Amino acid sequence: MARWSLSGRSVQFLSTLKELPQARSNHTGSVPAVKESLYPRDNSTVRPFNEIPGLWKNSLANLYTFWRMDGFRNIHRIMVHNFNTFGPIYREKIGHYESVNIIRPEDAAILFKAEGHYPKRLRVEAWTSYRDYRNRKYGVLLKDGEDWKHNRIILNREVISPKVQGNFVPLLDEVGQDFVARVYKKIERSGKNEWTTDLSHELFKYALESVSVVLYGERLGLLLDYIDPDAQHFIDCITLMFKTTSPMLYLPPALLRCLGAKIWKDHIDAWDGIFNQADICIQNIYRQLRKAPEADGKYPGVLASLLMLDKLSIEDIKASITELMAGGVDTTSITLLWTLYELARHPDLQEEIRAEILAALVASKGDMVQMLKMVPLLKGALKETLRLHPVAVSLQRYITEDIVIQNYHIPAGVSLSPSLMTTLILYILYFTLFFIFGLFACVLSQSDISTAGSLRYGS
Ligand code: HEM
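Above: inputs. Below: predicted complex with protoporphyrin IX containing FE.
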């Protein structure tokens, strides 16, 4: 049981970390030369790469087992199981996916020191295959090397620098207010003072509406009772794109394409729909710019800002915008869902966070940007939720030099995955915090939600 303390108050959340065993194998063997500084301090013998425990000798059998265990949905459980079986480092080969999984934060630190000048990540082959097939550019998520850095520096300025984030707040606040209004309307209409719904679906729509308004500067109208068929098609494309991506992490897309598999065709249709949406938005932006070239002082969204900045090609912009959108929706909606779940299980903490937000609202005199700087307990709850229920279960890097981890020699070129399921490594985009905060600030500051009691889950 791990104890987590916030502002002097302790909250107990379950953690399996301390129950996890140490590596059990005790092999010896010869290894190629590795930088001296990388050898373990206790001078124990470094073991060769092939002695790393794990499931990597029969990739097809592993793929079958993975499928039998419903691995696409249970990957987090499989990770914990493998960790319990093999210890803090294990090799894995499932189908054509191969990696060395590491668990401890100090091992992740060794990895990041050896990753070279630019991060070299596992390609999401399903996504690169679509771009190659349709002759489209890669965005930052898929780019490598100098090209990645060039694009990333420009995106950093337009997406995550504190200077631009203030622009997002009013847009996100509006979506948050609409979401809360929708909840009230649904409760009222039920006639029973409650609303039973698939919350994950509602939060998905909230997240997509939020990301879209920031990226495209336009509301999709997903929080309305009637959803425009084009907007519904866009949601369906995003859902289909994610659904068809997971199997292609383990089955080569090139093979599925040769076989004319449905999953490949669906994947292509899904991305086509997503890119079409970006095309329509770009056309609208150009039309507006032609009509009213002088800015009216209103923030036009990331896409329009990038177009006006004119530092990236339209194709580069379009590629990164679609990746920002693909990366920003389920990550945030699922994190929100888990946070609400944890708060429902901890009503006292819920009350403390609500009090913190109300105090921040008064102190900031309604200035949302200032207010979001005054809610450390809420920020802590989100981070703790990400630790307990990481929406991205692992990171991934190819190393550019030989290293030693847990006394095993790992040659350059190997792919390593620090698990986010079992370490304390946290990743969160600042932008994410802003828009998750925005919703909480709205929901938890409404007085009658508190009088209705805690958020309730289950029966
Ligand atoms: C809880 C929220 C989120 C989590 C847990 C998450 C997780 C991650 C992880 C693990 C990576 C890979 C980082 C690496 O390889 O070093 C990543 C990259 C990325 N994420 Fe997120 N993410 C979240 C929210 C978002 C949001 C809101 C957006 C966009 C609006 C976004 C867009 C991206 C993009 C574009 C990349 C690629 C960046 C690059 O390679 O330069 N993510 N995210």
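The domain at 145-328 is CATH 1.10.630.10 (Cytochrome p450).
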